[in-house]
Amino acid sequence: MAFKDVAGNVPIKKILKLALERNRVPNSLIFSGPEGVGKMDMALTLAKTLNCQILATDACDACPSCRAIDKGRHPDVMVIAAEVRDVKIEQTRLLKQLAYLRPMTGKRRVFIIEEAENLNDPSANSLLKVLEEPPHFCHVILVTASPFRLLPTIRSRCRLLAFSAIGREEIEEILLERDFSKEQARILALLADGNLERAQELEWDEVRALKEGSWALFEALVSADHSSQFLERFGAVPKAVLEEFGAVLEVISSFARDILLLRLGGDPSLLLNPDLERRLREASGSWTVRQVLGVIQEIDFVLVELRGNLNKGLLATTFFSNFGELRHV
Ligand SMILES: [Zn+2]
What we know:
By secondary structure, this protein is an alpha/beta fold. Helix content is 54%, strand content 8%. The structure holds zinc ion.
């Protein structure tokens, strides 16, 4: 994978490429950011570029060094995966010993520590010495979704690059390139919430069931007689169902966006749910633009609040009553 193949995070690619051009890649780096946004891809691409035998500011993906790193078999590039909760002290001791040895076959030694927030204190302290006085040929990349769980002494010695979520449209494009259908790519990108890995892991049958269930709830919300179904489902809910609440709201929001598009005479090829075009057209007759905009805003508000600590059952009840009011504007 070369830099152009790493999804999203263009500003970080620019910083790294500039550093490579000037031969000034920091020896101690933190790649922080949400899950599934390409931090490990970027770290491996940087490790390959630092050792590439053909290119200077990108990975060629073809030379023996790039290929060995792809296979996890390069003697100078080590990925420490924290599958267990704690990175073992032996691993960081080994890292410490290797860090000061000149690279064996490559140009640079690169250590990538995955889920670095799981470093326990002895491991972190052992690593600290390397981060304090790194040899010029050694790079340590700490990859983490929770940089604030790293010791402050570690953070202060590293250059932190903060990755952001990948945009919905970009995820959609990548999924299309990877042979997902247009219908699948649209809705998976929407539900993935900036997480490319999640987009690829979602089970299509479950997504389809979620869409059908959400449509039923949407129709119930809109109808005067059955709207209580929504409250029965989400009014007083255990935690497990709350994740579903967020997903259902995302999907209902996509219905509202589609209805808005149709109301405004937009191009149907831009529908988020092209498979539901007929139903959406039928539904769109009963909505004004102002009502739909109100629903979209209300859902955006609830989705932000859902990530906080508000009483979620209360949030569902409030959403329900606000939705009812919007319908009667
Ligand atoms: Zn190469």
